[in-house]
Amino acid sequence: MHRWLSLLVLAATAACDPCAGVGTCVAPQVRYTGTVTTLFPDYPARGVPVEFVRTGGVSLDDPTLTAVSDSAGRFVLEGRAADEGTVVGRLVFHPPAPIAPVTIENVSMTTARAPGELRLLGTWMVQYPFFAYKGELFHRNNGRPPAKGMEVEFRRTGGIRIIPETFVVKSDSLGRFDLRPQTTTNGEVVGDLTVRLLPPYEPYVVRGLRLSTFTIPRLDSIIPVPIGYGLPYSAMLYWQRNREAAAGVRVEFRRTGGVPLYPDPYFTTTDSHGTVSLAAAPLASGEVVGDLIAHLPEPRGEAVVLRGLRLRTVEDSRPTEFIGFYGIPGGPDE
User: Fold this and answer.
1) pLDDT tens by residue, 45-99
2) Is residue 17 packed enough to be buried (19+ CB in 10 Å), middle (13-18) or exposed (0-12)?
3) Whole-model pTM?
4) Which of 25, 97, 113, 265 has minimal CB crowding within 10 Å?
5) Distance CA 262, CA 258 (A)
6) Distance separating alpha carbons of residues 177 and 173, to the nearest angstrom
């Protein structure tokens, strides 16, 4: 009876021993995993060297343990201890220069003897270079965002290395998209941004876009990205009879040559000052040739205001260019 009781006690003791069972105990060791993230926002910090330097507690075979964070920001510190107990030391993170190392004092790690046992050290935030840009697409000719789901490709052409060097994202209903590659270096990356628009638009390329790394929040993280070609021109129409502004007149720009437009023909209406803006979208770079036509009430019908108008497309955000005053025969009530 006593023999069976002794065996039962031994079995119960073995069940509570982490070394019991299939595995066997190993020498005392510390084996901890932690995560490094950027200070803002909470993104993994890749490639950060990590040191644990013993300052007290049980001795380690090597008083300094080292690791490097992976693509998820994870690192593992491990080493053999002279005895069971607690090791105390300083934890040091080394972001890329010129950012100073980050030191955390009095970090404790408890030894273990079960093979493969991995304990949690926690998550640590450090200043580390990251990209947190958001692009904002809008048509150059009218300021409106393109349709949701436009593919945007960024391809690195120079500057610091990024991971990946080419990536594709999609825009939301406001024309916004994220530019957030990973890096292990402070500095600037240069690349080309290609926007793949729906027909009839051709893909549009913004060349030489420059993005600098962040370590803290910045106000210039939203990048406006005008796409396509523009016709930033306007004119003012007036009635020849009384020289008053021709407000509310339906106007057509009828293309007769040059690069194609969308829509073609283009219709709009003069505002209260008689101003007409040519917000049609050129589908290529070059010159647009056409007639500006005012559509008057019946029985007068249409009146050609300006024939053979020649307009150069633009690829920048220059102010609207005023091309002149033009009279319409008669008056508003005729």
Assistant:
1) 999 999 999 999 999 999 999 999 999 999 999 999 999 999 999 999 999 888 8
2) exposed
3) 0.68
4) 97
5) 13
6) 10
